[in-house]
Amino acid sequence: MHDLVRFHTGNKFLLMAYSQKELRVLGNLVANPDKRSFGEITETYEKHLHSSLEDPPKRTSNINVLMHLLGHFSRELSKNERQFFLETLELYRDGRVPFTSALRLLKAWAVRFQNQHLLSQTFFDPYPDELIEWTDAGRPIDI
User: pLDDT 10s digit of each residue in the chain, 143 long?
Assistant: First the structure.
């Protein structure tokens, strides 16, 4: 059960981007208020996990998660930093900058403020670096 809790905790914001509804269901399963067996919990968890990942996150869902993450730093950031982030978020909302522009700002703040809970989130790095295709305006970059 400890491993399931750790998995769920580490994927919380990624799951939130995919489906807030399923995140609530999964969270309730992990909490296990009915004291169900581990086998029953994992079987049901797996079903809802698959269901939550059926469709890719929408831009509005990503923005919701980004705003939620911003809340973790709100007091530590200057007014100008918050404003710059919100402007970047609007550019993303309008399709003028990629999602990673806002995401990298938040990850930089997690590093700066040593927020280990956020740094452990798969939302910042959902897949291995080897799968990242480095491009600039559609052209490969010589690294």
Answer: 999 999 999 999 999 999 999 999 999 999 999 999 999 999 999 999 999 999 999 999 999 999 999 999 989 999 999 999 999 999 999 999 999 999 999 999 999 999 999 999 999 988 777 776 666 444 444 44
Predicted structure pTM score: 0.86
Q: Which of 106, 111, 110 minimizes the C-alpha distance to 92? A: 106
Nearest CA to 70 among 129, 32, 110, 40?
A: 110
Strand-pair partners of 136: 139
Q: Give the C-alpha separation, 10 to 84, whole Å.
A: 27
State residue 112 phi and psi, 5-degree precision: -55, -45
Cβ neighbour number for residue 11 with a 10 Å cutoff: 20
